[in-house]
Amino acid sequence: MAAAYNPYENMLNVLEKAAGMLGLAESDYEALKYPERELKVSVPVRMDDGSIRVFEGYRVQHSSSRGPCKGGIRFHPQVDIDEVKALAAWMSLKCAVVNIPYGGAKGAVKVDPRSVSKGELERITRRYTAAILPLIGPDKDIPAPDVGSTPEMMGWIMDTYSVFQGHTVPGVVTGKPIGVGGSLGRGEATGRGVLFTARELFARLGKDLSHARVAVQGMGNVGGTTARLLAREGCKVVALADVTGGVICEDGLNVEEIYQHCYVDRNFLDTYNAPGVIHCTGREVLCADVDLLVPAALENQLTADIAAEVRAPLIVEGANGPTTVEADEIFAKMGKYVVPDILANAGGVVVSYFEWVQNIQSLMWDEEQVNGMLEKVMRRAFAEVWDKAHAHNATLRLGANMVALERLVTAKKIRGIFP
């Protein structure tokens, strides 16, 4: 029987390869193999029926060498500590790739947010916030939305933290609603970053993104937004998938209609029907005959089992960790270009950084300014990764990890080891 997939081991595997290509001594990056802090909390909550349920929660801080820790909070029934550790490490690498002054963190609560009422969800969120309160703060660790969490929930976290502090502290969290210090452009930032990255990839290869046929896995904020923005770019989105399966239409799907159905109205693709639309499995979407594949759901979606069937020559990772090490090696042998998560989906944390800067300086930027600065950061980061990968005859994933690792190791060397 095959060993269970461990995303943290996956992260370490790539880290070791990047370090080897850079010629780093093990002592240079040894500290990065271990999270700085791992907190596990119990979250007791009174449910609507009067019963008490205890949920399991986590907050992991991977590295603070380059600044305050930064990372989302995931609400998902299958989340575990290894997943959170991997996500925190990827955040350290992600922030370093795009060169913003943050380290990496991640949090999670083991719950299906769709299975509880809104009141129960608010109580879970607030009690979890109280449990991790010693670790978070605008100059220590700044949470944000992730899978299963929303801007409204970030508002509850900000309010809970502020109550304990005795004054309003908007900078403790990003991805908040606009009315309590959120940033214009933050909601679409991750998907917009995926668009900018795809545009740069196509340009480097002498291709026109606006003529591309696209498949997107995931209809949450990242997948749904990415599909909409690619459609607006002129792409023909022919395949989409969510947790219930997929839909395919060779003439192109009505992405705006599907986004309304899934993301806004909170339905699933298995209940969506339209002329010419064929229902299929999620695997068929990942293996669709397209120019560009965007996996934007969860980890471990592109495995060795499926890699040889993936027909898209270009893959841009909207999700964190969607490709296993084994699948990556198969894609490299097939000559596919894979833009890794730590670069492709960094748009969210870049605009989170912009939001944090606005909060601590009591500023409000317009959306055009935010999107313009995001594009500048993403284009610069892509160029650095592309050049690093080609200089070392490596994949874009290794190129991104090399760029990030150099910055993290440099910061650690400057600061030294205490005492």
Number of helices: 15
Q: How many strands?
A: 12
The helix fraction, in percent, is 40-55%
> What structural category characterises the helix and strand content?
alpha/beta
Mean pLDDT: 95
Compute the CA-based radius of gyration. 20 Å
Could you explain the architecture of this structure?
The longest helix has 25 residues. The mean pLDDT is 95. The strands form 2 sheets. Strands 9-8-7-6-10-11-12 form a 7-stranded mixed β-sheet, sandwiched between helices. It has a 5-stranded mixed β-sheet with strand order 1-2-4-3-5. It is 45% helix and 17% strand. The N and C termini lie far apart (46 Å). It is globular. With 419 residues, it is of the alpha/beta class. The protein is built from 15 helices and 12 strands. Helix 6 packs across helix 13, helix 6 packs across helix 14 and helix 13 crosses helix 14.
Quick rundown:
With 419 residues, the protein is α/β, with parallel strands linked by helices. The protein has helices at residues 7-22, 26-29, 81-97, 118-132, 151-165, 189-204, 221-232, 255-264, 282-286, 304-307, 325-334, 341-344, 347-361, 367-391, 396-415, and strands at residues 37-46, 52-63, 69-75, 103-109, 141-145, 213-217, 236-242, 245-248, 278-280, 292-295, 314-316, 337-339. A 7-stranded mixed beta sheet has the order 9-8-7-6-10-11-12, with helices on both faces.
